[in-house]
Amino acid sequence: MHERVLLIEDEPHIVEALSFLLTREGLSVSTHADGSNAAETAARLTPDLVILDVMLPGKSGFDILNEIRGTEGMADTPVLMLTAKGQSRDRAAAQAAGASMFMTKPFSNREIVANIKALLE
Amino acid sequence: MGISASYLNLIEHNRRGIAGRTLLAIARELELQPSELTEGADASLINALTETAKTHSSAQPEVDRIEEFVGRYPGWAKLLSELSRVSREQRETLTAMTDQMAHDPFVSETMHQILSNITAIRSTASILATAGDIPADMQARFLANLHGDSQRLSETAQKMVDFFDHDGETDPSGPATAVAHDFWASHDHVPPPDAQPALKCGPHDAPVLHSTLERYQSIQSALPAEAFASTAAKHGFDPLTLAQQYDTSVMAILFRMAQMPPDMGFPVFGLIEVDMSGAVLMRKPTPELALPLYSSACPLWPIYRAFAQPGQVLRATLEMPSGDRVLTYALSEPLGNGGYDLPALLRSTMIFSADHRVMSQAPAAPVLAGLHCSVCPRKHCDARRVDYILA
């Protein structure tokens, strides 16, 4: 059974590249591009791991993470947060909201795949 | 006079400066004005150099010989003091510009777009370079994505260059206002009561800062923070009711609500104040609502509509493209007494909060607004004046 990853990211070309990479690694990838109902999608799919962008249209990644952590059965789901800012306050906010890992854009393919595998172990 | 002959000899040969009681005693003895004796050994110059020496203590300047230095080489001393002043002002300007870089919504949004583009390009290029057996249709798709992303990156970078390229022109109101903004931000928007005397000289001499400090000091005595906090909570943080309760102006209440000490549990209110040209006079952003540093906010904000109804408090809920909502109170008032046949000068103030205790008073139908057009993704907006940079 493939492990399931939910990628919540609004930049379509990043979505395509990451989906391609992760599918090749044997993962099943679902995607969601809008912040407004991302937590509902996560609750419906109950993925094994969530990749979550911080800046999304409709709702911030931090708010979505809070909602995911409040969803039954998802309190311990690994969440990898992505941001294009990389400021220390974003990192602190991600940790406070319960992110499992935090990566800043631009990242290398090798690095993100390694981190995702580590979170799924 | 209480000084030794050898010390007097040093003074006579400009190797020691004189000030204070010694200066007065010598002046009295010689029947001269003290100012006639201090020429060339300016006490303020000595003070300035002492400050400079403290700031750059790593150079181990001979602090105990500053008076001698000023006495023997007054020209070099003035030059050093002047260079130190220029250096300090440039540091402050740099700090203000850094603040603009960090908080300007356009810069922040553009940087986000540039980094997202770079991420997509890097990731896609890496796949094309390292993954050997990519199906032809995927390969073509990735190449098209690379082309599109590189084009967008180039356009966004050009917009960024245009944003900073002012052909060497500077806004004379900019640095002074930035100093005021920096002051308010560094004091958590609540100035210490004794701040004003310390800010009456030097680069802090910004009219905007003094005007707001004076207003703060007047409301601080009329509306003490602790009593105000409990009264405001009792009346649902409603500015009109509070103005009636305290028999004061609504503007004073708005200002007080946005300038409460941060440790009192009072709802956090942001504040923005603009003149009739739209220039930002004062700003206190909150996490829910960023504010422009100088101008160019969203024209749908009630702070601008308030100019059409001076003296009328406007209440509106603003919904940002992110979905964040804030309740706003806006009010414009005339400045000074004006003059015959002159246009009225108005200043408009808007406070806002996303606190649930405040939002309970919010009108249900929000105004769908943004920060300013270049970072607002709303389509079909009649108020739009420039394109959304990510469109």
UniProtKB/TrEMBL annotation, chain A:
Stored Gene3D superfamilies: 3.40.50.2300
Keyword Transcription regulation: yes
Residues with PTM 4-aspartylphosphate: 53
Stored InterPro entries: Bact_response_regulator, CheY-like_superfamily, Sig_transdc_resp-reg_receiver
Keyword flag Phosphoprotein: yes
GO MF terms, alphabetically ordered: DNA binding
PANTHER family to which the protein is assigned, alphabetical: RESPONSE REGULATORY DOMAIN-CONTAINING PROTEIN, STRESS RESPONSE REGULATOR PROTEIN 1
Protein name, UniProt field: Response regulator
TrEMBL record, chain B:
CDD domains: HTH_XRE
Coiled coil residues, start to end: none
Sequence ranges assigned to domain HTH cro/C1-type in this UniProt record: 1-37
InterPro entries xrefs: Cro/C1-type_HTH, ScfR_C
A Pfam short name: ScfRs
Protein name stated in the entry: XRE family transcriptional regulator
